[in-house]
Amino acid sequence: MTESEFQSAVIEYAKMRGWMVMHTRPAQVRPGRWATPLSGNPGFPDLVLVRPVHGDIVFAELKKEGGRLSIGQKAWLTALKAAGAEVYIWYPDDMEAIVRRLGRTPS
Ligand SMILES: [Mg+2]
Fold first, then answer.
1. Residues 49-99: pLDDT tens digits?
2. Residues with Cβ–ion distance below 5 A, ligand 1
3. Is the pLDDT of residue 105 over 80?
4. Where is 92: in which H helix or E strand?
5. At what angle are helices 3-16 and 95-103 packed, to 10 degrees?
6. Ligand 1 center–CA 76 separation, angstroms
7. b/e per residue, 80-106, with b = 16+ CB within 10 A?
8. 3-state secondary structure at position 63
């Protein structure tokens, strides 16, 4: 499973379970060169999922199997966690746990 197939699967499932989805993905700026046109600190997580009905917000960095976090990604996840956010690094092998989390209705 490629990273983009994995992302699509997570996004599709999240939408199905009533989450609003914010997803940033890189664009090709010239042949062979990809960049995500954002300003601010680099490395913001791939996905922000919000379920307003439940007051639920999740930040997730998605990685292909064996993929590693950049320094910026680490900094963002650490900062968000310190600020009380629910953060994840999700790999394709985590699909079962992802489905469990996104399908869960908080009490
Ligand atoms: Mg990623």
1. 999 888 899 999 999 999 999 999 999 999 999 999 999 999 999 999 999
2. 46, 62
3. no
4. none
5. 20
6. 13
7. beeeeeebbbbbbebeeebeebbeeee
8. coil
As given in the structure block, the two tokens for residue 33 are 């060169």
Q: Separation of 102 CA from ligand 1 center, angstroms? A: 18
Q: What domains can be seen in the chain, in order of their start residue?
A: 3-103 (3.40.1350.10)
Question: For residues 26 and 71, what is the distance between their CA atoms, to the nearest angstrom?
Answer: 17
Complete DSSP assignment for 15-45 = HHTT-EEEE---EEEETTEEE----SSS---
3 alpha carbon – ligand 1 mean position (Å): 7
What is the pTM for the complete model shown?
0.88
Q: What is the mean pLDDT of the chain?
A: 92
